[in-house]
Every structure is written in C-alpha cells, then in structure tokens.
Write a structure and sequence with these properties.
mainly beta
Length: about 120
C-alpha cells in the first residue's frame, strides 16, 4: 500500500491550495480518509477526516469553513482543498487512510497508512 501526497507549495495569506493523495494497493472507498499537519515544534494534529461508516466529514475547529475534503474513486485519489489560508496553516501536511469504524475526527493512531507529507507555507 502506498499513499502519495502532492500539491504543497508557497501561497500568500488569503490564497488557496489543493493537495492530492493518490492511493495504490487499496480501494479508497472502503476506507476512512483524512489529513493531518505538523508545524515545526508542534505535535501532529488532525485537520479533517471522512468516516467510512457514515460518509460524513469531521473538521478541526481551526479549519472549519475553510478546508474541505473530496474523493475521486475512479482515480483512487482524495484531495484537500484549502481556502483563505493563514500563516498559522503553515505545516507539513500528511494524508492517511484506515479501516477504523469510529465516527468523528480521527486520531493519528486510528489510521493504518500514511503518505510522505507535503510542505505548505503561507507567507507574504
């Protein structure tokens, strides 16, 4: 199983960026999917996750109304659309999948597979 994250870069405050996570070796629509981020000197935090049970997406308060997740089952890929970016969104972003049946914003230990991370820098 491999997850390949891409799409990071430098963006100005207020801008948008879309990250991709391409999966191989598994069928994404059977899995919970999510994104995490880790800023320098801080712990990895969950950004959002989509449950494989109810199909709903759960968000960290810090990104509600600005970030969304989507999935393209035909491409076995999911995405993180980030709008109205702020400097505090600067971090390495990781995609993850898992077979957990828990509903809610999932913790890192609940995921089985991880992408390699992609750097997002929000700065003027």
């Amino acid at each position: 199983v491999q997850l390949q994250a891409s799409g990071g870069g430098l963006v100005q405050p207020g801008g948008s960026l879309k990250l991709s996570c391409a999966a191989s070796g598994l069928t994404l629509d059977h899995y919970a999917i999510g994104w995490f981020r880790q800023a320098p000197g801080r712990e990895r935090e969950g950004v959002l996750s989509t449950s494989r049970i109810d199909g709903l997406t759960y968000y960290a308060d810090s990104v509600k109304g600005r970030f969304t997740i989507s999935r393209d089952n035909a491409k076995n890929t999911f995405y993180l659309q980030m709008n109205t970016l702020k400097p505090e969104d600067t971090a390495v972003y990781y995609c993850a999948t898992g077979l957990t049946g828990r509903i809610g914003l999932l913790a890192s230990y609940e995921y089985d597979y991880w992408g390699q991370g992609t750097q997002v820098t929000v700065s003027s």
